[in-house]
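Holo prediction — flavin-adenine dinucleotide.
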Amino acid sequence: MKSVDYIIVGQGLAGTLLAHDLIEQGHTLVVIDKDMKASASKVAAGLFNPVSMKRCIPTWNASVFLPFAIERYQQLEKKLDTSFLNLTPVLKVFSNDEVSKQWKVQYSNTDINQYITTFNKEEKFSYLKDSSGTAQIDPAGNLEVNKFLSSSREYFESIDSYINEVFDYKELNPETATYKDIVGQRVIFCEGFRVLQNPFFDFLPIRPTKGEVMKIRIPSLEKLDYILSAGIYVLPLGSYEYIVGATYNHKDMDDVVSESGLSFLIEGLNKILEADYELIDTNAGVRPTVKDRKPLLGLHPLLPKLGVFNGLGTRGVLIGPGLSAQFCTNLTTNANNSLVADNERVSRFFC
Ligand SMILES: Cc1cc2nc3c(=O)[nH]c(=O)nc-3n(C[C@H](O)[C@H](O)[C@H](O)COP(=O)(O)OP(=O)(O)OC[C@H]3O[C@@H](n4cnc5c(N)ncnc54)[C@H](O)[C@@H]3O)c2cc1C
């Protein structure tokens, strides 16, 4: 029998962040993950942006989560001796003059002005259809999620804390937190949308949202200095390549890229881009979204050795580090001190 403090099921963004936090607090653990189809983190462009683009208001707890996330990923870059965080401003391309006017009103009347650094006049960018102007949001950027996950996995393997297999729920004794020949103090489930197949947490209000992205090459643009946002986003990767995303679909839960999804992305791109491009690749995954758009973390109401960290939704990169740190503190000290104001929501399953 191997004995550890925590068994973590799933090494997407949630499981990875929590495992790092727990290890740094001196706990032993094992992460169990099998590269399963349609997992969200492997498809995500990893954007983080403190502004909700539809309504031009700050995203949920942005003032806490944004600085926390940037600092945490930078710490993890040092720890893992690699780089995966890019700070790049977002350029909102206004679809018409009315939207531009609404944003300027919000800028003058609310605290959103802390994130909007510039309004640009129309037709500033030769490669854009920006006849109603643009606004620049800073700080923002993206996490290279796959690089973060693979370097973390190497680290967990190097300290003998990683098992590459499908977690078999039938092998778990939920009262003692014993899984096969591993005895844990607790088991924390971080399986993304597949938590719906978890017999202990299948009651959670997860309503998955499939998303599709495409990779393109723009031969005339080596690397944009911005992430473009206009219903779709365009993320510069360098070497003339860009990720364009994303779609939102509640019907399917697979990794198949649909014709309608691709058409949506192409139409959105053609509305803003004034340059030729080629399609290189497509990809799809399923986001663990929740009906009320808030995350789910805490312990099982009846089985206190089982916990969950899920529901990161569409903004896992931004909110994940702060939530993981808070959950780690709650797990290890039984305290209920909250990093975010909306404590009720965050710890709603915490006993
Ligand atoms: C197309 C798309 C674009 C996105 N873009 C962004 C973006 O730009 N910015 C942003 O912040 N967020 C984005 N997201 C959302 C983001 O990906 C999620 O918030 C986040 O990745 C969720 O992480 P997770 O760890 O909860 O779930 P997942 O990433 O799904 O990870 C779950 C892990 O658990 C493993 N697993 C599940 N069941 C088992 C089992 N029984 N045994 C073993 N292993 C198991 C899976 O293999 C997987 O590795 C996007 C998502 C999609 C689909």
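READOUT: The chain has two domains: 2-43+146-206+292-346, 84-139+207-287.
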